[in-house]
Amino acid sequence: MKHIISIRDLDRPFIDDLINHANHIASQHFNANSLSDKILALLFFEPSTRTRMSFEAAMARLGGTSISVGSIEASSIAKGETLADTIRVVSGYADAIVLRHPKEGAARLASEFASVPVINAGDGAGQHPSQTLLDLYTIQQSLPLDGIDVGMIGDLRYGRTAHSLAYALSLYRCRIHVISPKGLELPSALIGELRDRGTEVIEHEFVEDIIRELDVLYVTRIQRERFPDSASYFDVSSSYKITTELLENVRSHLIVLHPLPRVDEIEPAVDALPYARYFDQSKNGVPVRMAMLQEVLK
Ligand code: NCD
Question: Is the C-beta atom of 284 inside 6 A of ligand 1?
Fold first, then answer.
């Protein structure tokens, strides 16, 4: 049984195969009935637009069915049921479970109680491996994955997409440039792990200092919902912004990515520049998740 909980569970051959598979799917090479006997359970206990809808769209494109429970309030968790019990029950209804949960470690715990594969669709400030797969997929559409310079800007402390992506980039010997407001740096344990793996991680105070040397700029939102209080959020909100001026004289092949949703960290005028790839990136969620579902449900 194949759970996908952390990007650390996946090795490079698996990821490369999955990207190839997603490329085939994107060029319309897939069997639209391949999952017609399968049911996917979506348990989303935090807000979601892209992740949830692209998993549903992926399942529908492959002829499968999705079932879901609306929210914590609408589920028996509101009556005091444990996650472990919910997962045991849902395992009896579906062939795989996609779980988004506010607590770090929730998906790992769920995998211990599930009798079907669990895909982590975000566990608090932990991991978001399916997002990383579509991030890598989007990068390889324009650039080789090996040895590139990737800037990661924003809330690298609480941003689970950043945690998963940084580790994945270490599989491809990329150089990682991190830029974040004070207090929102990439966790030091993760930086240590990346460096132990031989990955260069370079910290910068200002994006202006490095923007011209980047191949990819990965922008993230400040994860307001993870802050202990709103005062500490307002201390750092709007402290960085990607503007058209910032993107003057950058490498011609630079791509700007963002897992979305954005708040104010990329000004809308950037959307019209050739560097902006974040809407393509979100669209790529469908073929990548189709490939994941075929892998997990085969
Ligand atoms: C991200 C998430 O939920 O971690 N969104 C997504 O899945 N595309 C990023 C975010 O919420 O900032």
Answer: no
Give 128 Cα–ligand 1 centroid separation in angstroms.
8
pLDDT at 272 over 80: yes
Under a CB-based contact definition with an 8 Å cutoff, are residues 119 and 292 in contact? Answer: yes
Between the CA of 48 and the centroid of ligand 1 the distance, in Å, is: 8
| d(C-alpha 292, C-alpha 296), whole Å | 6
Angle, vertex CA 259, rays to CA 258 and CA 263, nearest 5: 70
Domain positions in the chain: 7-127+285-297, 129-282
Q: What is the pLDDT of residues 208-243, one digit of tens each?
A: 999 999 999 999 999 999 999 999 999 999 999 999
pLDDT score recorded for residue 72: 77
User: pLDDT of 146-200, one tens digit each?
Assistant: 999 999 999 999 999 999 999 999 999 999 999 999 999 999 999 999 999 999 9
What is the CATH architecture assignment of 129-282?
3-Layer(aba) Sandwich (3.40)
The alpha carbon of 282 and the centre of ligand 1 are apart by a number of angstroms equal to 11
CATH topology assigned to domain 7-127+285-297: Rossmann fold (3.40.50)
Which atom of ligand 1 is found nearest the CA of 47?
3
How many angstroms from the chain centroid is the CA of residue 101?
A: 14
Asked whether 77 lines ligand 1 (CB < 6 A), one says: no
Residue 80 three-state SS = coil
β 255-257/201-204 pair status: unpaired
Please state the atom number of ligand 1 nearest to the C-alpha of residue 50: 8
Nearest CA to ligand 1 atom 12: 221
Residue closest via CA to ligand 1's atom 6 equals 259
pLDDT in tens, 69-119: 877 787 887 788 999 999 999 999 999 999 999 999 999 999 999 999 999
